[in-house]
């Protein structure tokens, strides 16, 4: 866990200022602090999912009811959302996804690599705009930009947070 | 096609007619396939949002809507095949405990749009027990007209979340196709919220 102020604090602030009212997630170690910030503050609905595809549908329903949302997941979860992206595609629902990457930088688990390598291609094949944040200092402004593209531009947008920016997974904590 | 006869007597269109006859300002989300045709045929309404795709996502769509509009009751009307693809979403609902949320499954034990192949519910899987298992306090299988009457009353008055699996005949009803353009359906549905403070965030589009 990053000490002191981190990208998680910044993204937390960006999403709140962006009037996000529902945050849906399947946990990832990279999202651990951000998720905890929402749980602790508890003034925005936080929705743990059993599968990432639920989040795509959930946030479509939220938008129908006038609320903005964000979906937090690991890169492996991108594989679970592909067909459900048909719904925001067809209805032009805004969709903001924040994806912490595995399988692309100093990955030690080979099982993470296939999906990690396919994330950008598959998202783009479904019409999602992909923004990459390769350094920690760029994560906040990238999410801010993605939020504008999603909610004001009316598009599906994914921010891929590089494993390089997150640091290696620590299995001893 | 010969369908094995069972003791199912309820007809899906009559079930939907009976339930939605009582609607006032409730919001209705339909799962793809026959439930969309059923609702469109008996209760075409601005407050309906018809899914034509996204199989497995009806309950989740309804949940997001119910969380965004807590003062409005949200009814998800879907089929057994669609529900089976999104069983996990029932667990997600219970974590949120939306008191304004109702799931109604029209269960003909078939995949109706693809050749009437049997679903898992034809082999003894009981969706209402799944719902009960994940924590829905009100979750029942409906077989009879009397049970349907009781459920209809609860759908509009009881505290959610609640789940009703209504066993219906494997009938072949006329297709009634509503608007299918997603953007049009979205705008039609959202028009009712114009003027709400909450929709200001949409006004920035």
Whole-angstrom Rg of chain B: 16 Å
| CATH first level of chain A | Alpha Beta
Low-pLDDT sequence parts of chain B: 199-205
Secondary-structure element order of chain A, N to C:
HEHEHEHHEHEHEH
- Total domain units of chain B: 1
The best one-word shape of chain A is globular
Number of separate domains of chain A: 1
Largest interface: A-B, 37 and 42 residues
Number of helices of chain A: 8
Percent of residues in helices of chain B: 25-40%
Question: What do the pLDDT scores of chain B average to?
Answer: 93
User: Would you identify the CATH H-level superfamily of chain A?
Assistant: Thiamin diphosphate (ThDP)-binding fold, Pyr/PP domains
| Cα-to-Cα separation, first versus last residue of chain A | 10 Å
State the shape of chain B. globular
Radius of gyration of CA atoms of chain A, rounded to a whole number? 15 Å
- The CATH superfamily of chain B is known as Thiamin diphosphate (ThDP)-binding fold, Pyr/PP domains
Textual characterization of the structure:
- The complex is a heterodimer of chains A (173) and B (205).
- With 173 residues, chain A is α/β, with parallel strands linked by helices.
- Chain A has a single domain, classed as 3-Layer(aba) Sandwich (Rossmann fold).
- Helices cover 47% and strands 20% of the residues of chain A.
- In chain A, strands 2-1-3-4-6-5 form a six-stranded parallel beta sheet, sandwiched between helices.
- In chain A, α7 (136-152) links the parallel β5 (129-133) and β6 (156-161).
- Chain A starts with 6 loop residues before the first helix and ends in a 7-residue tail after the last helix.
- Mean pLDDT of chain B is 93; it is low at 199-205.
- By secondary structure, chain B is α/β, with parallel strands linked by helices.
- Chain B has helices at residues 12-20, 34-43, 58-68, 80-85, 87-96, 127-134, 145-157, 182-190, 200-203; strands spanning 27-30, 48-50, 74-79, 101-107, 110-111, 117-118, 138-142, 162-167.
- Classes of the chains: A alpha/beta (173), B alpha/beta (205).
- Chain A binds chain B through residues 19, 21-22, 45, 47-51, 53-69, 83-84, 86-87, 90-93, 151-152, 154, and chain B through 27, 29, 49, 51-58, 60-69, 86, 88-89, 91-92, 95-96, 182-183, 185-186, 189-190, 193, 196, 198-199, 201-202, 204-205.
């Amino acid at each position: 866990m990053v000490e002191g102020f981190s990208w998680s604090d910044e993204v937390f602030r960006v999403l709140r200022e962006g009037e996000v009212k529902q945050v849906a997630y399947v946990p990832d170690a990279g999202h651990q602090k951000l998720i905890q910030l929402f749980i602790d503050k508890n003034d925005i609905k936080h929705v743990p999912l059993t599968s990432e595809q639920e989040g795509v549908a959930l946030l479509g329903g939220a938008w129908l009811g006038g609320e903005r949302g964000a979906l937090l997941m690991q890169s492996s979860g991108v594989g679970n959302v592909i067909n459900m992206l048909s719904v925001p595609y067809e209805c032009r629902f805004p969709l903001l996804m924040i994806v912490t990457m595995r399988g692309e930088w100093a990955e030690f688990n080979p099982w993470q690599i296939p999906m990690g390598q396919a994330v950008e291609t598959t998202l783009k094949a479904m019409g999602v705009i992909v923004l990459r944040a390769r350094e920690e200092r760029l994560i906040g402004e990238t999410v801010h930009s993605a939020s504008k593209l999603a909610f004001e531009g009316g598009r599906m947008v994914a921010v891929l947070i590089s494993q390089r920016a997150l640091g290696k997974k620590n299995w001893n904590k | 096609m010969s369908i094995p006869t069972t003791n199912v007597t309820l007809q899906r269109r009559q079930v939907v007619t009976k339930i939605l006859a009582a609607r006032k300002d409730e919001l209705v989300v339909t799962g793809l396939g026959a439930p969309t045709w059923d609702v469109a045929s008996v209760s075409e309404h601005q407050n309906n949002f018809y899914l034509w795709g996204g199989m497995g996502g009806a309950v989740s769509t309804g949940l997001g809507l119910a969380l965004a509009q807590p003062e409005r009751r949200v009814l998800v009307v879907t089929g057994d095949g669609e529900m089976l693809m999104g069983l996990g979403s029932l667990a997600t609902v219970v974590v949120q405990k939306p008191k304004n949320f109702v799931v109604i499954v029209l269960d003909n034990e078939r995949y109706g749009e693809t050749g009437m192949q049997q679903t898992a519910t034809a082999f003894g899987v009981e969706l209402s027990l799944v719902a009960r298992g994940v924590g829905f306090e009100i979750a029942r299988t409906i077989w009879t007209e009397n049970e349907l009457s009781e459920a209809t009353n609860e759908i509009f008055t009881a505290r959610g979340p609640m789940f009703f699996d209504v066993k219906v005949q494997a009938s072949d009803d006329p297709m009634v196709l509503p608007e299918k353009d997603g953007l049009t359906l979205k705008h039609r549905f959202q028009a009712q919220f114009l003027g709400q403070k909450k929709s200001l965030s949409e006004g920035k589009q």
